[in-house]
Specification:
Blueprint lengths: L5 E12 L2 E7 L2 E3 L3 E5 L6 H8 L7 E6 L2 E2 L4 H5 L2 E4 L11 H9 L7 H14 L15 H13 L5 E5 L7 H14 L4 E5 L3 H7 L2 E6 L2 E7 H6 L4 E8 L3 H8 L4 E9 L2 E8 L2 H14 L3 E7 L4 H12 L2
Parallel strand pairs: 4-9, 4-10, 7-8, 8-9
Antiparallel strand pairs: 1-2, 1-3, 1-5, 5-6, 10-11, 12-14, 12-15, 13-14
Helix pairs in contact: 3-4, 5-6
Length: 317
């Protein structure tokens, strides 16, 4: 990509607090109109990165750009085009959602009032709060508060939306509603967000970056990350004497290992293979010819949580 295609780009960006190196030489690239998940365990450097991007901290070393502008020299101009939702958004509980959005909008617009009202109505519709817009916020659920927070962050038509744990501590319906709002907003803005809910990342994200101990350990599209383990696993559930089948399958050059367990009189195998075509053509026939009864045969889907844990654990060695 051309450098102009990056909404966020950093070069060896770092931040230290005395002897503590919170962020070490971060090289990050966030493309336009993407939903970009920024992941890592607690203390990995995610919050420090967000504060550097927002101009709330100054880097110890390296540099960063947003919209091609320097995050230190042009911080005020950058922030005029960013929407931000902190992890724990706070509101004036006695105010309604409409009053809150109108109050925020007036920091960015001087009028006419009809245009402000139009923008507020757009935001209420965007996040699905039409039925609650004129009720006090104190009666809102967690999911409704998060959607209001996103509407507040989006009210100035930002080109970049930064969300810190937007679906944390929400029930499944609240999480679903927040993810739907994020998917709608992607038409208008790039979304850069942190989360610990990896199932949500797999559902809505285009790009993923993982940091650990202040260092970037991987960045890839979600498809590349899910496909990049180099190992395919087939789940097989068997009945009967399977020793002969086990010997026959493990002797195949495309089988790298079998994890076996027992449940309700059945053997459950997790067969790791290195050649998908060979497995599809031969594995089932090998099992049947060995005399065992196969009650289930399926390819195991890749799980982002497992991949995340493996990547983080490898980076700590």
């Amino acid at each position: 990509m051309n450098s102009n295609d990056w909404v966020i780009s950093t070069e060896s960006l770092s931040k230290s607090f005395g002897e503590i190196h919170a962020l070490k030489s971060l090289d990050l690239r966030v493309p336009q109109k993407s939903i970009f998940a920024f992941l890592g365990p607690n203390g990995a450097g995610k919050t420090t990165t967000i504060k550097l991007l927002l101009g709330l901290l100054k880097p110890t070393g390296g540099s960063g750009k947003i919209f091609g502008m320097d995050i230190v020299r042009n911080s005020v101009d950058i922030r005029a085009n960013i929407g931000y939702l902190p992890q724990d958004a706070r509101f004036y509980e006695h105010m309604t959602a409409r009053q809150t959005l109108e109050y925020t909008a007036k920091f960015f617009y001087t009028g006419p009032q009809a245009e402000i009202d139009k923008r507020v109505n757009e935001m209420i519709e965007l996040v699905g709060l039409e039925g609650k817009a004129d009720r006090p916020i104190k009666g809102f659920s967690g999911g409704e508060r998060q959607r209001l927070g996103i509407a507040q962050a989006e009210v100035n038509y930002p080109d970049l939306l930064i969300l810190d744990e937007p679906a944390a501590n929400l029930d499944p319906q609240g999480r679903r509603d927040v993810l739907e709002v994020m998917s709608r907003i992607r038409k208008y803005a790039t979304i850069f967000y942190c989360t610990h809910i990896l199932d949500d990342v797999q559902r809505v994200s285009d790009q993923v970056a993982i940091v650990n101990q202040g260092e970037l350990v991987t960045q890839a599209s979600i498809e590349e990350l899910l496909a990049g383990t180099g190992e395919l696993i087939y789940t097989v559930i068997l009945r009967g004497d399977n020793q002969g089948a086990y010997t026959q399958v493990t002797q195949q050059p495309w089988v790298s290992g079998i994890e076996s367990s027992q449940q309700d009189g059945h053997a459950i195998w997790q067969v790791s293979v290195t050649d998908e075509a060979a497995a599809e053509d031969q594995l089932m026939s090998l099992l049947v010819s060995s005399g065992v009864k196969v009650s289930n045969f399926s390819r195991k889907g890749q799980n982002l949580e497992d991949i995340f844990i493996n990547i983080v654990e490898r980076s700590q060695k």
